[in-house]
What does this fold into?
Amino acid sequence: MEKMDLHILGCGSALPTTKHFPTSQVLNIRDKLFMIDCGEGAQLQFRKSRLKFSRLNHIFISHLHGDHCFGLLGLISTLNLLGRTAELHIHSPKGLEELLHPMLDFFNKQMTYRIAFHPFETREPALIYEDRSVTVTTIPLRHRLPTCGFLFAEKPSLNHILREMTDFYQVPVYELNKIKNGADFITPDGTVIPNNRLTRPADPPRKYAYCSDTLPLASVIEQIKGADLLFHEATFADEDAPRAKETYHTTASQAASLAHEAGVKRLLIGHFSARYDDESLLLEQARKVFPSTSLAKENLSISI
It folds into this structure.
């Protein structure tokens, strides 16, 4: 199975604490790094997680609150100091380019690389990135600013060739691609060798869903259904549900209920309020609803 690892760089909320960095994650898919949100200190945490800047080409920003994007300018400047030449692609709701350009013009007058901004709408799901192995689709959320989560979905791969069987039946090399795509093999004497004798099924494609700051929304359930891993904000404990509603956030139990309704395999909660010295209360409340829940923490790495 190809690599698909999630690295937590920060899992705190807006107020800084000595325990948590603001929100930022990196998803490693086959050694391509995709950053999701970029709070303060993200580049330091990137180093601590032993990730390579050279493999980072796409950054996805859920919304334009500072705790999700204040780390961008520092990261961009560091990449410039390192002499980066490859384009850096930043995907975000509209407005980020206008906010960053004056600061970039002042602090980085001589850029060694180009930044490509890709604004997206937040009202409807939209495909915003695609390569040979993965798609990224926005998940519309409801917060105090236009906000989207992201669904990273592997594309189905081809069947795996059973080399010992293709050698046994003396299958020519030029036939292998058709067999990977499901074709049977016909020997020179007309015998049909069924495809399932020559291949084994590919690993099922995986999905990672990221839901940042939001009220709990039933509308996301269908889109994240069956995800291998769901990260959902759980800023508040159940007893602070009125504050969660007031600030357009989610409680731990509400996040767990969404995970249960969507039938995801695992839930990871984060974006913890600074009011909690110990997040084990949030974990306990979430696990009562959805047992396969874990707490995010800095420099945590999860294989999907």
User: Anything to note?
Assistant: Residues 55 and 173 are 33 Å apart (CA to CA). The chain is about 25% helix and 25% strand.
